[in-house]
Specification:
The chain is an alpha/beta fold and about 240 residues long. It has one domain: Dihydrofolate Reductase, subunit A, CATH 3.40.430. The chain contains 8 helices and 11 strands. It has an 11-stranded mixed beta sheet with strand order 2-1-10-11-9-3-8-4-5-6-7, with helices on both faces. Strand 5, helix 5 and strand 6 form a beta-alpha-beta unit. It is globular. The structure holds NADP nicotinamide-adenine-dinucleotide phosphate.
Length: about 240
């Protein structure tokens, strides 16, 4: 892969890529990781992001989440995508321990319904038991099932401020929100996003494949930090103004 901005261009791979996505020393930092098509779709015709992604996007995806404390996703994403177990390599576990972090990122799923794909190995095979963030009074039968697979956290509401406070309360301050579009939209609308790591995929997929979402009242502008390109994909890192 080539980092073409900032100049001069240079090639990046492996841990260089990890270094290209540093976690600032803020009390909390929320980054988004998403892939989008040329026509703004968040998934291909099969309703999955994998069909608009690629191995090079996958490498960046890994670099963005490797040193996170929490991977935050909406229930819609977990229902659509095959989320694998959250683990870290031995080298990353050491790196994490040196930084005072838990041995692997912790999955946090936002769901009011608790209608989640409980057969996925992400529940039982992750290093840390996943969290499920839900409302104050979920369906009792669904709650019983959820408790067999995850640590359930009850919140007064599922607004982004409440979700992120629940993570911070558990010491999870480096948060990567991997979508989907509905959850990300809510985080942006609440003005709680610090960084956007966006991959532009060189395909048109039809924008009808993107779930309909609302939007922030005002456009939220970020600063470009870098552009990496490989095989026609463009991986951009943007951060809040003033945090470069
Ligand atoms: N391109 C990408 O990088 C990317 C990334 C992720 C996902 N995707 C794609 O996006 C699609 C799923 O996205 P989505 O937007 O439908 O789902 P989503 O944002 O992952 O999840 C939405 C669900 O989250 C729960 N939720 C609770 N509080 C919420 C809040 N404040 N804001 C938003 N959601 C809240 C609700 O679950 P309950 O219904 O359980 O109450 C809601 O139905 C799939 O096609 C997936 O493949 C693409």
């Amino acid at each position: 892969m080539d980092m073409v901005f900032p100049a001069p261009a240079r090639s990046v791979a492996g841990d260089d890529l990890l270094d290209a996505y540093p976690w600032p020393e803020e009390a909390r930092w929320v980054r988004a990781m998403m892939v989008t098509t040329l026509d703004g779709a968040a998934a291909g015709r099969d309703g999955l992001s994998g069909s608009i992604s690629s191995a090079v996007d996958g490498e960046v995806f890994d670099a963005v989440r490797r040193l996170a404390d929490a991977v935050l996703v909406g229930a819609g994403t977990l229902r659509a995508e095959e989320y694998g177990p959250m683990r870290a390599s031995a080298a990353d576990a050491e790196r994490r321990a040196a930084a005072g972090q838990a041995p692997a990122p912790r999955l946090a799923v936002v769901s009011g319904s608790l209608d989640l794909p409980w057969a996925l190995p992400v529940w039982a095979d992750s290093t840390l038991t996943p969290l499920v963030l839900t409302g104050p009074s979920p369906d009792p039968a669904a709650l019983t099932t959820a408790r067999e697979h995850a640590e359930v956290v009850f919140l007064a509401d599922l607004e982004p401020a409440s979700l992120l406070a629940a993570l911070t309360d558990r010491g999870l301050r480096r948060v990567v929100c991997e979508g989907g579009p509905s959850l990300l939209e809510a985080v942006v609308a609440a003005d709680l996003l610090d960084e956007a790591d966006i991959t532009l995929s060189p395909v048109f997929a039809g924008t009808s494949t993107t779930p309909r979402t609302g939007g922030p009242d005002e456009v939220a502008r970020l600063d470009l930090v870098h552009l990496i390109t490989a095989e026609g994909y463009v991986m951009a890192r943007y951060v809040r103004p003033g945090h470069r």
